[in-house]
């Protein structure tokens, strides 16, 4: 809750023209934005850097219209997600199962991933690796719900779809993840 209050204060200062407040907001969320862009662009570092820059340009442009209906991080996530998907479509980049292991090498080597891997149980690591083998749309919604701990309402806001659509996508994504994990378990036991 403290972060949300801090964000509201920063936003008010930024809207009033305080550039130091914007730098603070940028410092707070730049790595978050880049790491999410890496996920959404299948690990394309150059595109993720471009997306991150575009995201913060949009933040500057649209911050005065931010209505505080959702937390700032949720609003930012939506901008990161839509900007990433737009760039992926524009540049005709294939983000499918075949390139996930190679594409996430950069992400895995980041300090965030190292910290995450050390802190999580073996099962959670297996799940994280399996998530890289399902389509981006599926891993994104699972990431939103389980890792980012966004509720159905927040995911509805981020994706701009109905609540029933979010529930169906979560159900299908869980099933795809389960199928990948079953295949891995079967291969491991051979």
Structural class: mainly alpha
Question: What is the fold named in CATH at topology level of the largest domain?
Answer: Rna Polymerase Sigma Factor, Chain: A
Low-confidence stretches: 94-113, 115-120
Order of helix and strand elements from N to C terminus:
HHHHHHHHHHH
Helix content: over 70%
Level-2 CATH architecture of the largest domain = Orthogonal Bundle
**How many individual β-strands?**
0
Kindly estimate the percentage of residues that lie in beta strands according to DSSP.
under 5%
Q: Write down the overall geometry.
A: elongated
Protein name: RNA polymerase sigma factor
Keywords: DNA-binding, Sigma factor, Transcription, Transcription regulation
Pfam families: Sigma70_r2
GO molecular function: DNA binding; sigma factor activity
Write the SSE topology.
Elements: H1 2-15, H2 19-40, H3 45-62, H4 72-90, H5 100-103, H6 105-108, H7 111-119, H8 122-131, H9 136-147, H10 152-159, H11 163-189
Helix pairs in contact: 1-2, 2-3, 2-4, 3-4, 4-10, 8-11, 9-11, 10-11
Describe this entry's structure for a reader.
The chain is mostly helical and 190 residues long. 77% of the residues lie in helices and 0% in strands. It folds into two domains: 1-94, Rna Polymerase Sigma Factor, Chain: A (Orthogonal Bundle), CATH 1.10.1740.10; 120-190, Winged helix-like DNA-binding domain superfamily/Winged helix DNA-binding domain (Arc Repressor Mutant, subunit A), CATH 1.10.10. It has eleven helices and no strands. It is elongated and about 65 Å long. Residues 26-91 form the RNA polymerase sigma-70 region domain. Keywords: DNA-binding, Sigma factor, Transcription, Transcription regulation.
């Amino acid at each position: 809750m403290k972060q949300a209050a801090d964000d509201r204060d920063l936003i008010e200062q930024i809207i009033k023209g305080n550039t130091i407040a914007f730098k603070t907001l940028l410092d707070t969320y730049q790595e978050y934005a880049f790491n999410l862009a890496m996920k959404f662009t299948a690990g394309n570092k150059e595109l993720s850097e471009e997306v991150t820059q575009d995201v913060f340009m949009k933040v500057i442009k649209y911050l005065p219209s931010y209505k505080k209906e959702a937390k700032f991080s949720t609003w930012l996530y939506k901008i990161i997600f839509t900007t990433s998907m737009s760039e992926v479509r524009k540049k005709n980049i294939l983000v499918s199962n075949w390139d996930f292991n190679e594409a996430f090498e950069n992400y895995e080597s980041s300090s965030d991933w190292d910290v995450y891997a050390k802190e999580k149980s073996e099962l959670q690591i297996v799940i994280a690796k399996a998530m890289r083998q399902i389509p981006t749309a599926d891993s994104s919604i699972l990431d939103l719900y389980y890792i980012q701990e966004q509720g159905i309402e927040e995911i509805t806001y981020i994706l701009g779809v109905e609540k029933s659509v979010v529930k169906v996508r979560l159900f299908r994504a869980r099933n795809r993840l389960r199928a990948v994990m079953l295949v891995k378990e079967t291969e491991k036991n051979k």
